[in-house]
Amino acid sequence: MTDVGNIAKIPELRKRLLFTLMMVAVYRLGIFIHTPWVNTEAVQNFLKQDTVFEIFKLFSGGALEQFSVFALGIMPYISASIIFQLLTVAVPSIERLSKEGDAGRRKITQYTRYATVALSLIQGFGISYGLRQQGFVTPGIPALTFYCATVFTLAAGTSFLMWVGEMITERGIGNGISLIIFAGIIDRIPSGFRDAWQNKSQFGELFGFIALLAGIALVISVIIFMERSQRRIPIQYAKRVVGRQLMGIQASHLPLKINSAGVIPPIFASSLILFPATIAQFSSGNEIVGQIAGFLTQGWIHNALYVALIIFFTYFYTAVAFNPVDVSENLKKMGGYVPGIRPGKSTSDYIDQILTRITLGGALYIAAVCVVPSLLGDQFGIPYSLVNTFGGTSLLIAVGVAMDTLAQIESHLLSRHYEGFLGAKGGGRFRGRR
Q1: Three-class SS of residue 236?
Q2: 181, 59 in Cβ contact below 8 A?
Q3: Which of 89, 118, 212, 273 is deepest in the core (most CB within 10 A)?
Q4: How far is CA 48 from CA 37, 45, 253, 369, in A?
């Protein structure tokens, strides 16, 4: 409780937290603003089926069931981010932009916003066309009027969520986009427990329900353990003169996380699977398209594709976020070296070799956490809605974002000599400002 009380003693951190809560509240209130001329009750009945939209509902935070202005959620932005991160590796001009510092990153962010709007328009049209084909539209509304209103409403909702996420990142506690997804997942947990209790007969009555809770606790424990696991590479710094003193050899370490990519791989993988599956599901009148939607949403093809995408994005995002060559050069400039390894290219190769090995373990861990619950759900007949609410993907995102948020708060506490949440010491207990 002392650590929580320390937050109120830092005006800047208090303002950031209040701003973040206010933005999340605006997002949650916007879920209840319906898109015009859509039969919400019919949409809810349609979404009660175990379809791809169970995953979509998880990321939209209930906006899809209400078919609100936020029905598309933040997924178009995530898809656009994937596209430009891939282009950063494939297109030399965009790669040069990414290396131009803040100016280049701002330019890429601007392009990402444009791509988000374009994807929102495309997905909005596909969904509006599917709604009209399914008969979920108020009778008497001209097709062109409905298409234009729905497409621009959904695109505006996604654009607003993108702005909310960026504001939380800049003026709030950080991780704006992740916090929006986190808020949607947390909102489903109470109703998930209610549904689990109502369906406890499928788990073996009370004992099975308790076993389900124990399984959830076990998965959360594994996630916390793996997210905090790291491989430490020993680093030594040569003798150097600091002021008038000669500093001797200093020992330190370079921490490499087992999962450097965080919650990004399952979010990116789900986004790529959702995009074609959503269009296919609304085109259910076509038998071939319906089969494609089934392959993309359930079964071994879905699981295999999901695992492959998770592994790919784990390596990809780790390579984007961590550059062994830059780390090696920085160590060399600071007089640091790995014992037994020559500075320069040998050091970067050594770091890259270790990073490649531990990233494989991190990728397999993420894939197992995300896929095993769905496999158990298929084996024991657990409803798809419960698998998505308490499955590995939702828990991984929720726990990962919660830990990242606590780390952001802790950084503010440590910078002002408070003790943080995660056990690190920032000058001991609260000492006030210096």
Answers
A1: strand
A2: yes
A3: 212
A4: 21, 5, 52, 25
**How confident is the model over 334-351, as a mean pLDDT?**
87
Quote the pTM value. 0.79
Burial class (CB within 10 angstroms; exposed 0-12, middle 13-18, buried 19+) of 324: buried
The residue ranges of DSSP E strands in 274-350, in sequence order, are 336-337
Per-residue pLDDT tens digits for 128-178: 988 888 888 988 899 999 999 999 999 999 999 999 999 999 998 888 888
What is the Cα–Cα distance from 43 to 39, expressed in whole angstroms?
6
Q: How far apart are CA 286 and CA 247, in angstroms?
A: 74
CA distance 27 to 363: 32
**Nearest by Cα to 56 from 42, 70, 45:** 70
Ordered by start, the domain boundaries in the chain are 2-415
Q: Can you name the CATH fold of 2-415? A: Preprotein translocase SecY subunit (1.10.3370)
Give SS3 for 69. coil
- Please give the average per-residue pLDDT across 230-250, as a whole number: 70
Distances (CA, A) of 144 to 141, 147, 303, 320: 9, 5, 39, 43
Question: Tens of pLDDT along 271-303?
Answer: 777 666 666 655 555 666 666 666 666 677 778
- Report pLDDT for 201: 63
Tell me if 409 sits within 8 A of 420, measured CB to CB.
yes
Nearest Cα neighbor of 327 from 239, 411, 262, 235 is 235
Residue 82, both tokens: 């994937």
Residue pLDDT, tens place only, 366-384: 999 888 887 777 666 666 6
